[in-house]
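I have been asked to look over a protein record a colleague put together. The record follows directly below this note.
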Amino acid sequence: MKYIIIAFSIGIVSLLFSCHPKERKTIISKVTDSTKNTAPDAEKIDSIRIDSILHEATGIAAAKQDSRFQEKYVVTLPDSSSQVEVHLSSDYYFTKAHPHLIIKRYAPYYTYINIFVKTDKGLQQVASNEIPYMQAEYTGDTILDINGDHLKDFVVNWYGSNGCCLKAFSDVYLLRPDEQSFSQGFEFINPTFSPKEQIIRGVCYGHPGQTEMYKYKWNGEAVDTLEYIYYEKNEKDQKTGKLIVSNKLPDSDNYKVLRRLSAIPAEYNKIDGIDWFKGR
């Protein structure tokens, strides 16, 4: 049964208490030469400053003659209140045919990552990601084939700052067959990816021994829900020693029990977070 991807919201409460994969919006835009039409006000000044740093970085990259380069520098904001560390890196990261430019901005309260390709009309943004420090900690990113289609994808990893429990997230941007653009971002909680199977397994948000595991499958630029697994409980809220496999999370519409098990399937025993699921 296909699961309908939900549009991403930055609210950490909805992130931490939902196990469903979410779609993170990617803003596709051309780099322009001016921001003179932007009307600054008190609420937008910080955003405008951060945007201007990206504009400056793309200008630096556009002037480069080589497709492979790296550059780092620090920008002090006009009021000297803080600094933004900027990393530019261009190379054939995803394909031998098209170089991609990756710009990272480490600002006081956010980490921003933007990916561009060069076209005959200039630099074109093909993916973007931002992580707020107040709600999450950026832990790194990687380039690899995550869905088994033999194309290298981009994965941003971060850890939720609020709430209890295990909350390691991955935002996945799939490289499309044109080898230049990316899909919208998919957000997974506590995932373990199996590209050869085109499967994602993981542990939902919840207390140790009290939460669910999930199993999803890539379906092009969509994700199908295959099953959820969790401990069966009796009317006294005590574990019976059995596990339930269902098509949806408990209390969901059209919820259906698929089968009862006496032990955790072997395919789940090596995923990240399995000890959390078991309550160890």
